[in-house]
Structure formats: C-alpha cells, structure tokens
Amino acid sequence: MASEPERHPSPEVLSEDEQQDGLSLTVQYHGQPITLTLPTDATISDLSTLVAEDLQIPATNQKFLISPKPGLLRPPFKDPTLRLDALPQKAKITLLGSTTQEVADVDSAITALKQKQQARRAALNAGRKIQANRHRDWKTVTEEATYTFAALRPLPHLHQPEKSLRFLERLRDDPGIKAAMRKHKFAVGLLTEMDPAEHTTHESRTLGLNRNRGEVIELRLRTDAYDGYRDYKVIRKTLCHELAHNVIGPHNAEFHALWNQIEKEVEKNDWSRGGKSLGQEEFYNPGDDYVEDDDHCDAGGWEGGSYVLGGSTSSSQPAAEPLSRREAMARAAEERAKKQKSAQKAAEHDNNPPTNE
Question: Where is this region: Disordered (predicted)?
Fold first, then answer.
C-alpha cells in the first residue's frame, strides 16, 4: 500500500511555531502605523502581495519608501527576492498608493464629466437651436470644462468642511488658475485638503502633495491650530507648484522654471486681483502664525511632488516623525504667545523711549 504523501502547511497560513518566529513589520500609511505579520523569510514581493490582499491597494498603485535605504521601491521590483529581514533594523517603511475604491471614485468623477460633455455635443449635433452668446468664448468654455479639477473634496472629519469646499471652489474658479490649466492642458482628478496634523514634523510643514502626476492634489488649507485658513495667495502658490509636478517629477532646474512660468501666468491672468472679494475676507487670516517667506525647501518628488516650508530635508535622511494634532496646536499657541509678547515689548518701547540724561 502506497504511503500517504507528506503534508506541508499552506504558505498563506503560519503554524503556531512559525507565528512565534514570524516577522512583525510596521508600515506607515496615511500617517498611521500598520503592523503586518509575515514569515521570517518574507521578501519585498511577499509584502506587496499582502498589501494588495489586506489593504486593497493593487500592486500597480503601490510604492514603498524605505529610509534611509534602499529608498523608493515599486512593483515590479528590480530585486523581488529582497528579504525584509535584511533591511536595517531601524528602517522606516512608508506605503504610498490609492486603494481600489479611491481610484474608482476619481474614475467615476472623470466619467461623469465626460458624459456631460458628450451630452452637450450630442445636443448640438441634434440640431437644437441654441442661441449663441456673442460675448462668450465657447472655445474657452469647452477648454475650461476639460482642463479643470474633476472633483473637489474637503475633509469631513474636520470642523466646518463646507468652508473648505468653498476654498477649493475659489481655487478651481480662480481666473489665473483656469488660464494656466487651459494653456498647459492640466486635468486633475481630485483636489482635496490636507490634514495639518498628518503632515507636520518638528522640522517642516508640508503645504502640498501631488499623487501620480495629477491623479490627486492635496493642499494644506487650515492653520496648524485648526482655527482658521491660510493666506489664499500662499495656497495658490502651492497649487502652482503641484501643477508643475503634472509634467516634471524631480525638483530640478527644468521644474523650477516651469513652476515660475505657471506662477507668472496665474498672476497675469488674475483679473480679479485688483478687487476685494467676499471669499478673500472670509479666508484670509492676517494673524496666521505661518507666513510664506524665502526660506523654503522641497521635500522631494517621490509622490509626484511635494512643497514644504520650514527646515531643509534630504532624501538621504529619514523623515521626521509627524506631530500629533495636540502637539501641532500647542506649538501654534506657543508661537502666537511669543509674537504677542514681542509686540507688547515693542509697544512699551515706543511709549517709553529712552532719554539722554
């Protein structure tokens, strides 16, 4: 009688002994730590498969930023057999990528926009009598409907998301932004706001991110203390930076030349800059503790582009840990207190000038 073949445990299921000797790996995703358990001999390809199955992020959308080395990795990997236990002990792994549902939401918004355009063209082809507006440039109207932001999304868990939505609408409808997007044929899937607490470190604050060259653009709209909104022109400047990443990823001379060109085009075509709008009064916060200056730096283009103001960063150094919302608000309060104290001393000096005896 033939002996029964030896049975081995399925590679997807760890035995009790294997679980004790398994590899516990912490991955940062959207600013949150996620702990994954893999076999001790797991490779980078095994990690990619687990992320696709458990987090619903397809391999085509995945990027792993491992600092300090080996840096940015994405499927298909150059070395798919790279073992995870061979990474430095204190290596930080950050997962970048959109889930299947997030991609579907963007695709739906773009599809809805295309359907509207097709319906409009069908109405024209059907011979309907549409009274032409001799004062309206229909070529510009069509281009603005094509080269725009397909969807706007505030963060619903933050206070008064309707204000953030109006801020995003103001950016979308800004005459200078619209003109630049038409000229460069920029079409962005989603324009959304960024949670300050998730993108604030002890060295810097990220103002904007561009994912997959225009699939999603995130902008830091709110102050660090969540008590107001930042200067509109600073946010618009950040948007110009992220739009330049639709064309060029790395922050090289060519990128900075394009960014500078887009900014000049936006300023030139902003016919509303001479007036005072209701939106500007609502959003501009003259007491904002964070004002743009010339001491800015870029965090790197590994996500399609980011714009950071604050301390300098380097791709060869591990990223600083983000501050919690409580830490960010406390730091903002400290900075405001310092400014108030400085202003009070200046006022006392003006009221009691030194005298020569």
Answer: 1-20, 271-290, 295-357
Instruction: Give the pLDDT score at 304.
Output: 41
Total number of domains in the chain: 2
Q: Are residues 172 and 70 in the same domain?
A: no
Identify the sign of the CA torsion 153, 156, 162, 167: negative
Residue 242 is a catalytic residue: yes
Q: What is the mean predicted confidence (pLDDT) over 47-76?
A: 90
User: Do both 266 and 325 map to the same domain?
Assistant: yes
CA 179/CA 143 separation, integer angstroms:
10
Alpha helices by DSSP H, listed for the chain, are: 16-20, 44-54, 100-125, 138-146, 161-173, 175-184, 232-244, 253-269, 278-283, 325-351
Q: What is the pLDDT of residues 133-175, one digit of tens each?
A: 556 677 888 888 889 999 999 999 988 899 999 999 999 999 9
CA–CA gap between residue 72 and residue 44 (Å, rounded): 12
DSSP symbols for 67-134: ETTTEEE-SSPSSTT-BGGGS-TT-EEEEE---HHHHHHHHHHHHHHHHHHHHHHHHHHTT------T
Instruction: Identify the CA nearest to 221 among candidates 289, 162, 174, 167.
Output: 167
Task: Report pTM.
Answer: 0.46
- Are 302 and 181 part of one and the same domain? yes
Mean pLDDT of the chain: 76
Read off the DSSP letter of residue 59: G
Domain that holds residue 267: 139-334
Number of C-beta neighbours around residue 116 at 10 A: 11
Residue 124 has pLDDT above 70, yes or no: yes
CA distance 12 to 49: 11
Residues 145 and 260 in one domain: yes
CA 193, CA 154: separation in Å to the nearest integer? 5
pLDDT surpasses 90 at 344 = no
54 and 172 belong to one structural domain: no
